[in-house]
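agent> call fold_tool(seq_1)
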Amino acid sequence: DDWLAHKPREPSPSQCCGSGCKPCIYDAYEKELAQWERAKAKQDKSLLMEKKEQSSNSELNPDTFTAFSVSSVEQLTEDTYQYKFELPGNSSLRLSLGQHIVLRESVHRLGHWEEGLLPLSSLRRTAEGYFEVLMKHGELLMLASGTGLAPMLPILQSITDDEEDETFVTLVGCFPTFDKIYVKPLLQDLARYWNIRIFYVLSQETSLEKLPWSYQENTYTGRLNEGLMKTILNSCRRRPFVLICGSSSFNEDMSRYLRAAGVEENSWFVF
């Protein structure tokens, strides 16, 4: 039982975005499991300390999860919280442009650690000695262009995987043509959930007649402009928190449209 308490937990299918990440979350799990099996075979728990030593480094390791302590929590809106995590000394995460992080919480209960993927996390700021993350429940509007869809998928899947999570999500995926839409089967499966809406905006399509009938009702031709943005915002049950990911020009356009629609800047996040 003591060894089982140290055994890494296998990720659930919803924790993998299916985008072919290198390394994948399953790669990290397999590495941790192999380390645990070696330690258990030799009955030497000191071999598990390698993971803890790595967690003290300021640079993130893509193969393992790294432990950080929460130094403060600030409520920004009714359902948005900003978590501040400590970093040793004046170090920083050293993330490159376009990189993102996956968070996993560990809670100590009844003598053992329980872990789970956080329902939604967006890196807000990284600086010397700390980094900040937004946590959001309620209603979300996701604006993704092309491969900007990638960071949205783990968030969507974590919401649908949790039966108690009632976050309402509207995803707007912007692509040149219907053939360029990524992971169509996964998106169609997600759209079947009561709290998930998915719209497509196809900039190079001129007609919806050639599209499958199941896509015609929730697809727009042309570009996601200021007018369409207002239409989508008005279709939300209440003013949502917005996540944006795409090219620099796409991100700038979306931010400008949100300002024009009266959305406050602390109510959106750009990946």
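agent> call fold_tool(seq_2)
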Amino acid sequence: FRLALIQLHVSAVKSDNLQRACGLVREASAKGAKVVALPECFNSPYGTKYFKQYAEKIPGESTQKLSEVAKECSVYLVGGRSIPEEDGGKLYNTCAVFGPDGAMLAKHRKVHLFDIDIPGKIQFKESETLSPGNSFSVFDTPYCKVGLGICYDIRFAEMAQVYGEKGCQLLIYPGAFNLTTGPAHWELLQRGRAVDNQVYVATVSPARDEKASYVAWGHSTVVNPWGEVIAKAGAEETVIYTDIDLTKLAEIRQQIPILNQKRWDLYGIEMKK
């Protein structure tokens, strides 16, 4: 099946972002995409000072538009992190997924909050305004099971391993790595998660905006279960496409059967929720 990643140039105008995102979903559908993913924070600037201002409930205005365009185009739409989700007086970094009938199939709240301090380069603390999610998120398609994470979630190998054990063959991470962590770890982490779990890994970033207060790395990418980069964007707004070959995935798992050769008598991963 064909996967499309929309690397959107995000502005401060929510309605413009949403309109352009929906237009690019239609374009991707016209080119044969069956699963379409939007980037983290595609409908608001990324930054703790923006989260409360742009927050919406789910369902709400933005997710309603995503539901409508998913149904119109008959695609599985991974809604990036459209906006911060407001629920019960708390804010969450949330990705909603919609099926071809417009129904919401999953709602993933970012599990690991991005709190870092690299002296002289970047300091960022999502926990100042956001609360963490407490669950894994998997949705089914006629093609395969898909596991969801958001940005910083990709650094935690245990999470991807749980998804592999749950039968996922594709992991999608909407993300917005920056100009420090992007060149160092963006592709490396994707390749690691793909090889470790013999799955396809797709990451979808906002396009780079040098004038923004937080500058995203871009370079939305798809990695196959062999660890090869099979599609990669630059820094600009674009849509990239790749065909997910589940026959190739099965062949790799047969040739190097790590999933069957793990020593569960010696170690294991426990999913608590």
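agent> summarizing second result for user.
The first strand starts at residue 2 and ends at 7. The helical segments are 14-30, 48-54, 61-73, 157-165, 181-197, 246-255.
agent> awaiting next instruction.
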